[in-house]
Amino acid sequence: MKVNLVKAAPWLVVAGMFLLWELICVGFEVPEFLLPAPSAVWKVGVEQFEPIMMHATQTFITTLAGFAIAVAVGLLIGMAVGSSPLLYRAMYPLLVGFNSIPKVAFVPVLVVWFGIGTVPAILTAFLISFFPVVVNVATGLATLEPELEDVLRSLGASRIDILGKVGLPRAMPYFFASLKVAITLAFVGSVIAETVASNLGIGYLMMSASSSMNMPLVFAGLIVIGVMGVVMYELFAFVEKRMTSWAHRKPDGAA
Amino acid sequence: MSFVKFENVDLAYAPGGALAIQDVSLEVKEGEFVAVVGPSGCGKSTLMKLISGLRMPSGGYVYVDGRQVGGPLKIVGMAFQNSNLLPWRTTLDNVMLPLEIVEPYRSTLKKERVRYEAEARQLLAKVGLAGFEDKFPWELSGGMQQRASICRALIHQPRLLMLDEPFGALDAFTREELWCMLRDLWQQQPFTVILVTHDLREAVFLADTVYVMSKRPGRILVRREIDLPRPRDLDVTYTDSFAGYVHELREHIGRVRAS
After folding, report:
1. What b/e sequence results for A209-231 when a residue is b if at least 16 CB atoms lie within 10 Å of its CB, and e otherwise?
2. Where residue A67 sits, what CATH number does that domain have?
3. pTM
4. How many inter-chain contacts (A to B, CB under 8 Å) are there?
5. Are A191 and A202 in contact (CB under 8 A)?
6. Domain that holds residue A53
7. What domains are there in chain B, each with its CATH number?
8. Predicted pLDDT of residue A255
9. pLDDT (0 to 100) of residue A219
10. Would residue A18 count as lying in a domain?
11. Looking at beta carbons, which residues of chain B come within 8 Å of A247?
C-alpha cells in the first residue's frame, strides 16, 4: 500500500496541478490570451500534433547534439583539471567566469559567426551544460584518497594507471550525477537559442505563437519541453543507478 | 647484510621548512619484523614514504636491497589504517589490483588469469576470507576489510611489507585475531615487515626489533630487540617478560611526551 502510494505520488501531483489550473481558469473566467486552461492546451496539442512534433524533434536532436559535445568536452577538461593541481588552479577562474555569463547574451555572437539556425542552438546547449560535467568529474578525481594513491604509486603505477584503475571509476557517480543536471540545462540552452535565432524548434514555435497571441500553443510548447526534460532526466537517473550501484548501496549493507 | 638501511636521513616536506624526521639511521635485515612506535605526528609515516620511494630524503641516504632508493620500488606492499578497498570491485578483484600494475604479472595477467585468481583465492582463504571473495568490500566487517587489504599488499609477493597502523581502527579482540593472522602469514613465508603503530603490546608481540621515535622532528631514541621465543602465542602477552618489554617502552614514550 505504502509502496504504491510512493510510486503514484508524482503522477497524482501532476494530475492535481492540471486540475487546479483548470479549475482556476474556469472558475475565475481567465481569458485565454492570458492563461489558457489545460483543456484548451490539450485541444491545440491534438490539432497541431504534427507541427509540434516536427519542432519538438528538432529541439530534441539539437539538445542531444549539444549535450553530447558537452559530455565529451566536459569529461576531457574535467579529467585534465581534476588530475593536475596546476591546471586546476590555472583554469578554474576562467571556467567560473565563463559559466557566469548568461548564455542568452552569447547567442547573438554565435549568430554572427554561424548564422541563424541549428548550429547556434547546438552550441548554446553545449556551452550551458558542459560546466557541471567539468566540475563533477574534476571533483571526483581531485578527492582521491592520498593513501590509495600511495599504494598504487609504490607499485610503480603511472598516472594513466591511477586514472584508469581508480580515478575514473571513483569519479563515475559524480559524472552520472552531473549528466542529470547537464541534460536539463541543455534543453534550456537550445530553446533559448531557438527563441532568439532560429526558424525551427520548440523555441521558435513558441515565439511565433506568442506573437500571434496563440497562448494555448505557447503552453503546449512549454509542456512538451518539460516532458522531454523529465524523460531524459529519468533516463540518466536510471543509467546512473545501473552503472554505479556500488555508490547507491543501502546503509544496512544489502545491495 | 642489511636489507633496508638509513644513513643520517633528514626529510623536510617543503625545501628549507621544518624537518619531519632528523638524522635517522637504522638497519633492517631481510626477513626481520620491525615495529616503529612513537607519539602521533612523529614522522612514522614519513619513514614509510622514504622506504617505498614515494619521497626522496632531504639529507642522508636510503638504501633498500643494497641500492639507493630513487623512485617507487615495486617490491613493496603497503596497507594502512583505512583499508582503502575499491567499493566497485569485489574482494577478489581488489586483491588482484596490484597484479594489474606490477610486472611480470601485468603482461601475463590475460593468459594466466586463472592461475593468479587461484593464488588470490588461496591467500584469502589463508586469512579466513574463504567464501567472501565475490562480496563487495562494504559487505565485509572492518576486520575482514583489513584482512583483504593485507592480502592486496601481499599478492604480488613483495619482499617488503609496510604497515601503517593497520589495526588502529579495530576493536581489541579483532585486533588480536589480526595479530595472529599477520604472525602466521609472516612465519609461513618470511618477508621483511615494517610496522608503524601506537600500540606497544602489538609492537612487542609481533616484532623482532622495536624502534622508539621522538616527537617532531622525528629521531630514533631507542632500539630494542625483543627476545621472546617464536612462534609466539597470545598467551605470551600475559608473561612477565612481555610486560617488562611493554613497560620499558612505555617509559621511553612517557619521557618523549613529557619533554
Report:
1. beeeebbbbbbbbebbbeebbee
2. 1.10.3720.10
3. 0.79
4. 66
5. yes
6. 36-245
7. 1-42+51-69+197-259 (3.40.50.300)
8. 39
9. 94
10. no
11. 87-88
